[in-house]
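Title: Prediction job returns without error message
Component: structure pipeline
Severity: low
Priority: P3
Assignee: unassigned

Description:
Job completed but the reporter wants confirmation the result is attached to the right record. Sequence as submitted:
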Amino acid sequence: MKQGFRHSKPAGSWFARAILLCACSLPVVAMERPSVAPLHAGAEDSMGVTSAGAVTNPFANPAAPALSSTRAPAKPAEPAETVSPPEQRHPQLIALERELARLQAALPSGLPVVPEGKYGLGDTNRAVALLRARLAVPAQMTAGAERYSADVVSAVRRYQRRHGLAADGIAGRSTIAHLNTSVEQRLAQLRLNIDRWRARDIDAAGNHIVVNIPEYKLRMYSGGVPILEMPVVVGERKHATPELAGLMRYVEFHPYWNVPPRIFTRKILPKVLRDTDYLARNGYELLQGRTHLNPSEVDWNSGAGFDFRVRQRPGRSNALGSVKFIFPNPRAIYLHDSPAKAQFAHTRRTYSSGCVRVSDPQALAQEVLRLQNGLLAQDVERRFATGRTSRIDLDVQLPVHLVYQTAWVEREASSGEAQPVRYLDDVYGRDDLESYRRQQESGLLVSAAPSRLSREETRTGPAGSEALGVGWQNAR
């Protein structure tokens, strides 16, 4: 009897949209790379309303005075919890805390609610007047307040880009739901995201990489300043990318891909059954120990387990592309290149089996090896050009953090000025789950678990949490 592969049962559909009580339910949106100007007096802020005065840069010295406002604060600013000294805290945490204080002190509570619908260029509707008010777009002489004119299209597109929505300039279901989210809901979202940052041990002063999963973005920091950022692809919902941290130990160029049994069974074997030449055509090898097997001699329809392993040779079709970045962790998650370049232009980028695919692997390799090993860019370029498998161990290991932050504050690249906070899609339902748990702990819960979460999930957490265990081995 041949020994079969051991693999865990794939995670089920754990992620139907949660419906929460209190003020913790979050909008469903899609994602896109941001492109917005710094906030200034009179411009709409992250909640889509006009600012009353100068806005303090949340990335500035944390000892600076709090944000000024023409409105009297309704209650003392939070959070009041004890935090670590400012010099030890990440700029992102400082920025989120400032945004929380700003929302508590400065934002009005009676924001106009835009009726559900779909509104675009040329439409005339009372809802457009409310949309103008929410986005601070004044009515023009040539277009009444209820006319969806070009200036409204521009304002909507700018708002969509900021918050990761598909930037088509049309006010549809996702955009309106995002705009209509209440201040109380945003405050709850900010508190949850601040708590996540405080729970992490990130050395803000040192070199490190942060991948924000729901933003589909990687940033590399040096001295607390981002020096490189790029779009990434993360795990699909049933193979969600976990939150974890590790130390990058080496970079491997033109790697082999050792195919995990579960991926072979789920994705590759059906293609082999239809086309016996599929493996050879795409560079796959069958290995039994060190012996290469001929795919044509395998009885693929026997139904028995296979006692060989499968790997893919380096090359254009290799699933890992031209390089991988290894930071050992219990899930065998890593960063790597990908031949599927078109995916990086998509708004929602959940396509992998758990690992993080990077859009500019050469730039990342150059920065990592420059900072950690002192290598020149041309030295790294030669590694890419050879086509040969090689490995470079890092002289200084590099911290890598995979985080799940649905609230994120950017800073403008040229001036360093703060941009409005981005409120992102809760793509894996982790905000919903955490809100549900907090309601349980507070005794305020009066309904069943959110519908997108299974009974088991409410106890152990969503895909990507510690409960998953062995199912993550060598995900890509």
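Comment from assignee: result matches the submitted record. The chain has a mean pLDDT of 75.
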